[in-house]
Design brief:
Length: about 160
């Protein structure tokens, strides 16, 4: 990844790359956050080969999803190559581009207690009720666990 240099103490390294905690000698900022007016500005160090983003660990991808989709009603947690399509009528699609089944989590508004599979009609109750998130991601969400089969999608409403 490109090495982003920043010389200010009002910018925070939100996600780091490298191995500073496991015997490595340095870490590189991968996602930086700085306050700007009434909001935040983010700088992402995109690898030269964009497909390397698919190699990021689930935890990094989940943190990026939480930050970048903060204003959406729904978000997902899981590995790379799983997509989320959100619509303004309280519906969404999750699609897997993986060659094997994958377990994901769907997080939706705290008022939601169930999601409905619009193809099968199945009603799915939430696994975990809403909780307050960390200061960077103050989204309160209910959580559902889903398994997607290889190269399939599911359509839901909440």
């Amino acid at each position: 990844i490109p090495h982003v240099r920043y010389y200010t103490n009002d910018t925070w390294d939100t996600i780091s790359a490298g191995r500073p905690l496991s015997g490595g000698t340095n870490g590189f900022p991968f996602l930086l956050r700085g306050k700007y007016s009434q909001g935040n500005i983010y700088v992402l160090a995109v690898p030269e080969d964009f497909s390397d983003l698919y190699e990021l660990p689930d935890g990094v991808l989940n943190q990026m999803r939480a930050i970048f989709t903060k204003d959406l009603k729904v978000r997902i947690e899981g590995p790379a190559k799983v997509s989320l399509f959100v619509y303004d009528n309280n519906t969404f699609i999750v699609e897997s581009f993986l060659d094997e089944p994958v377990d994901i989590k769907v997080l939706a508004p705290k008022e939601s207690t169930q999601i409905v599979d619009l193809v099968s009609g199945e009603k799915i109750g939430c696994d975990k009720p809403a909780v307050e998130g960390p200061w960077r991601m103050p989204q309160q969400s209910s959580t559902w666990s889903l398994t997607l089969q290889p190269h399939t999608y599911r359509v839901f409403s909440f």
